[in-house]
Design goal:
The protein is an alpha+beta fold and 691 residues long. Helix content is 33%, strand content 20%. A hairpin with a 2-residue loop joins strand 18 and strand 19. Keywords: Hydrolase.
C-alpha cells in the first residue's frame, strides 16, 4: 500500500489542530504568566512598591502580614500606589481611578475582560475595606487629641494620600458648650511623603507636587484661618461630605483655608473633608495625591468620609476626656495643701504621686497643721478607691481633721470624730489615717493610728526603726476605740509618714515593702555621715526611687518631718494669777527673759503687747493665766486662759476707754492670732528678732 501524502491544506489543518488554542496560551494578564511578565516599574523613592499576585485570587507568600500592614502591597494598590506591571500592560492598568481601570465590563484595549479582571476588581474593593478598617482602628487607639490626629496622618500617608493637612477649630468646644466666635481654624498637624532624592524627579512632577516637595514649606502662610460667614469654606464645611478639589466651591474653599499662594494639584488629586463631631463641625482635613499615582476616584470620597467621621468623633471624646482629666487634676490639687507651713522647731517636705497619668484622682492625702504651743499636727490618710468620689470624701475628711485639730483635741479623739464623720458620709466610706502631734519643746510625739501603715523614724546616727504603733481599725468601721502612744522625738531625727502605695504592690506584700523602706532610709543616712542627717527633699526623692516598674499600683502620699526642737534655754514659761497685778508682773518677767536672750531692743514692744494681751485674759479668766515666750528665728509670745471666747478686733470710738489693745497688737506684731482649745483659748503674737 502506498503512503498517502497530505496536501498543503491538510498540512495547515493538522498544524492548527496540533497548536494549542489561543485561549489556552498564557497571557501576561492571566493565570500562568511567568514572573518575567510581571517586571515591576521602578518604585517611587521613599515609598515601598509591591508586585501584583501572579495568580488571581491566590495570596502570595506573606500576604497575611501585608494585609495587616497599612503599607501592604495589596492595600497600597487599592489606594492608588502603583503596583508592578508586565511589559505588555498599559500604564495604570489595574489601578482604581487610573488609566485603564475603567468599568468592570471593559478591559484594556477594548477587549472583554476575563475572570481575572473581575477578581482583581473584587480584590481592590476588599483591600479598600481592609484599609478603612485598619485606619479607623489606628485612629481609635488614640486617647488624646494629638494621638488621634497623628493616627489619622500615619494611617493615610502614604497609603491613601501623599500629603495631609489637619485643621481644627480654635478653641475646640467641649461637650454642649457654645463654640467661641469667630469661627477660627488652626493648622494642627501636617504630614507628607518624603522623597529620598528629589534631584532625580521629573520637572513636571516637582511642579505638581509643590505641596509635597521637601524643599517647599507645607505649612500655610498663616496657621490661623478665620472662616467667613457665607464664604466658600463655610459652605463646604456646612455640607459635611468630602469634596474633590477641582470643583469651583472646593477651589475657593482651599484658597481660603491654605492661602491664595499655595498651589494645589489639579483634577481629582485633592479631597477636602470636613471633620464633624457629634454636634458641629470641628475642623477639616485635606488629602493630596501627586502625579506619580492615580487620582482619587469616587469611592475614595467614601474612604475620606469614614476617616473624617472617626477622627472627628475621636477628637470629641478626647476633648471631653481632657476636660475630665483637667477637672480631676484640679480637684486633687485643691484637696492637697498648696504649700506646707513652717512651724517652729520642725522642717517638712512632702510628695504626692498618682497611681497613673490616666487616673490622677485618688483618695490619698497629707497635711501639716500648726497647733498652739508651737506644736504641729502631722496627718496622712488614704480613702479607698481611685475616683472622683474618693477624692471628694478625702476632701471632707481632710477638712474635718483640720477643724478637729484646731480644737486641740488629743489624737485618739480626732480619729474618733473622723470615724463618726465617715459613717455619716455613707456605710461604705472607708479610710485609713495616721494622726501625730509633735511638741518641739518637750521633744515628744503623740501618735494615733486607724489601720494605716506604721511610720518610720530615722535617727541622727543613721539607725532606722519602724515605730510600734497600735494598728487600730480603719475609719468608717464604727464602734471601735483608738489608742494613742507617746514617744521620744530626739532632735535631728526624721519621721516618715506614707500611704500603702509606697510599700505595697502586686509584687510584694506590705511588710516586705516596709522593711525595704527602712533599709533604704538607713542606707541613705549612711551617705551623709552619723552627724549630718540627709536633706529632706533629697531624702523624699531617694525614697521614691525605690519604686520599680511594677510598684505603682496605688497613689503615694509622703510626708517627712525633721525634728529640730526648741532648746529649754530658749523657752520661758510662767503662771499668772487672774488679778489686777498680773499685767505688771508679766511685763517684768518678759523684760528679764529678753535681757537673758540679748533682745533688749524688743523690750518696749514686747512689754506693751504682753500687757495688753494679759490684761484682756485676766478680765475673763477664772483660773491662772499662762504666759510663754519662745525664742527661735522669731520671738513668739503665747497667753492662755480658760475662757473660750475669742477676742475680736474692733474700732474703738473716741469716747471709749478700752478696745484698742488688739489694734496695737495688729500694728506692732509680725503675726498674731487666737486659737480656741478644749479648755479655753490661746492668744499669740510674733515679733521679728532681726530688723
Amino acid at each position: 500500500m502506498t503512503e498517502h501524502q497530505p496536501t498543503s491544506h491538510e498540512s495547515r489543518h493538522q498544524e492548527q489542530l496540533a497548536r494549542p488554542p489561543e485561549a489556552a496560551r498564557p497571557r501576561p494578564d492571566e493565570p500562568g504568566a511567568g514572573s518575567a511578565a510581571h517586571s515591576a516599574v521602578p518604585a517611587r523613592r521613599g515609598q515601598a512598591r509591591a508586585a501584583t499576585a501572579s495568580v488571581p485570587g491566590q495570596p502570595e507568600p506573606g500576604s497575611r502580614d501585608l494585609a495587616r500592614d497599612l503599607g501592604a502591597a495589596a492595600t497600597a494598590g487599592a489606594m492608588g500606589v502603583p503596583p508592578g506591571r508586565g511589559p505588555a500592560e498599559p500604564p495604570g492598568d489595574g489601578l482604581p481611578g487610573g488609566p485603564g481601570s475603567g468599568a468592570p465590563g471593559a478591559g484594556s484595549g477594548g477587549e472583554v475582560p476575563g475572570g481575572g479582571d473581575i477578581a482583581a476588581v473584587a480584590r481592590r474593593e476588599g483591600d479598600r475595606l481592609r484599609f478603612v478598617g485598619a485606619a479607623t482602628r489606628r485612629i481609635a487607639r488614640g486617647i488624646d487629641l494629638d494621638e488621634i490626629v497623628l493616627g489619622l496622618c500615619r494611617a493615610t500617608v502614604p497609603t491613601f494620600s501623599d500629603a495631609i493637612l489637619v485643621h481644627l477649630r480654635d478653641p475646640l468646644p467641649v461637650g454642649d458648650e457654645r463654640p467661641a466666635s469667630p469661627f477660627v481654624l488652626r493648622l494642627r498637624r501636617t504630614d507628607r511623603l518624603r522623597l529620598v532624592d528629589e534631584s532625580l524627579q521629573e520637572p513636571e512632577a516637582i511642579d505638581a507636587l509643590s505641596l509635597l516637595n521637601a524643599q517647599t514649606d507645607l505649612t500655610p502662610a498663616a496657621e490661623l484661618c478665620e472662616v467667613r460667614t457665607g464664604g466658600a469654606l463655610a459652605e463646604v464645611l456646612r455640607g459635611v461630605r468630602p469634596v474633590f478639589g477641582d470643583s469651583v466651591p472646593a477651589r475657593l474653599a482651599l484658597a481660603e483655608l491654605l492661602g491664595p499662594d499655595r498651589p494645589v494639584p489639579g483634577g481629582h488629586r485633592t479631597i477636602l473633608a470636613p471633620l464633624r463631631g457629634r454636634r458641629r463641625v470641628i475642623g477639616a482635613a485635606v488629602f493630596v495625591r501627586g502625579l506619580e499615582r492615580p487620582a482619587f476616584e469616587a469611592n475614595d470620597l467614601l474612604v475620606a468620609a469614614q476617616l473624617a467621621t472617626h477622627t472627628a468623633l475621636g477628637i470629641d471624646k478626647a476633648v471631653l476626656y481632657g476636660r475630665e482629666a483637667y477637672i480631676a487634676d484640679e480637684l486633687q490639687r485643691t484637696m492637697l495643701p498648696d504649700s506646707l507651713p513652717q512651724p517652729t522647731g520642725v522642717r517638712l517636705a512632702s510628695r504626692y504621686l498618682p497611681a497613673a497619668e490616666t487616673a490622677r484622682v485618688g483618695g490619698d492625702w497629707y497635711d501639716a497643721i500648726p497647733l498652739p504651743g508651737s506644736r504641729v499636727a502631722l496627718v496622712v490618710g488614704d480613702v479607698m478607691g481611685h475616683s472622683m468620689t474618693s477624692a471628694a470624701i478625702m476632701g471632707q475628711l481632710r477638712t474635718t481633721a483640720q477643724t478637729l485639730a484646731g480644737l486641740d483635741l488629743p489624737p485618739q479623739e480626732v480619729l474618733h470624730h473622723l470615724d463618726e464623720q465617715a459613717q455619716r458620709l455613707g456605710t461604705d466610706r472607708m479610710a485609713t489615717c495616721l494622726y501625730a502631734v509633735y511638741d518641739p519643746v518637750a521633744h515628744r510625739i503623740t501618735i494615733a493610728n486607724a489601720g494605716h501603715p506604721p511610720p518610720v523614724l530615722l535617727h541622727l546616727g543613721g539607725r532606722a526603726e519602724v515605730l510600734r504603733v497600735p494598728p487600730g481599725a480603719p475609719i468608717g468601721v464604727g464602734g471601735v476605740d483608738f489608742e494613742a502612744v507617746e514617744l521620744d522625738a530626739p532632735a535631728g531625727a526624721t519621721l516618715l509618714l506614707y500611704t500603702d502605695g509606697l510599700v505595697e504592690s502586686r509584687l510584694r506584700d506590705v511588710w516586705t515593702g516596709i522593711e525595704q523602706l527602712r533599709e533604704r532610709l538607713a542606707a541613705t543616712a549612711q551617705l551623709t555621715g552619723p552627724d549630718h542627717p540627709p536633706p529632706l527633699e533629697a531624702l523624699c526623692d531617694d525614697v521614691l526611687d525605690m519604686l520599680g516598674p511594677g510598684d505603682r499600683d496605688d497613689d503615694i502620699a509622703l510626708l517627712a518631718a525633721r525634728f529640730d526642737g526648741i532648746a529649754p534655754s530658749d523657752v520661758a514659761y510662767w503662771f499668772l494669777d487672774p488679778e489686777d497685778s498680773a499685767p505688771g508682773r508679766a511685763r517684768r518677767l518678759a523684760r528679764r527673759a529678753l535681757d537673758r536672750w540679748g533682745l533688749e531692743e524688743l523690750t518696749d514692744s514686747v512689754e506693751l503687747l504682753v500687757s495688753e494681751v494679759v490684761t484682756n485674759a485676766v478680765r475673763y479668766a477664772e483660773r491662772p493665766v499662762t504666759l510663754r515666750l519662745l525664742k527661735t528665728d522669731v520671738l513668739r509670745c503665747e497667753v492662755g486662759d480658760d475662757s473660750p471666747q475669742l477676742p475680736r478686733q474692733r474700732r474703738a470710738r473716741d469716747t471709749d476707754e478700752g478696745g484698742r489693745g488688739l489694734f496695737l497688737v495688729n500694728r506692732l506684731a509680725r503675726r498674731w492670732g487666737a486659737t480656741r482649745l478644749s479648755g479655753g483659748k490661746v492668744v499669740w503674737f510674733e515679733l521679728a528678732t532681726r530688723p
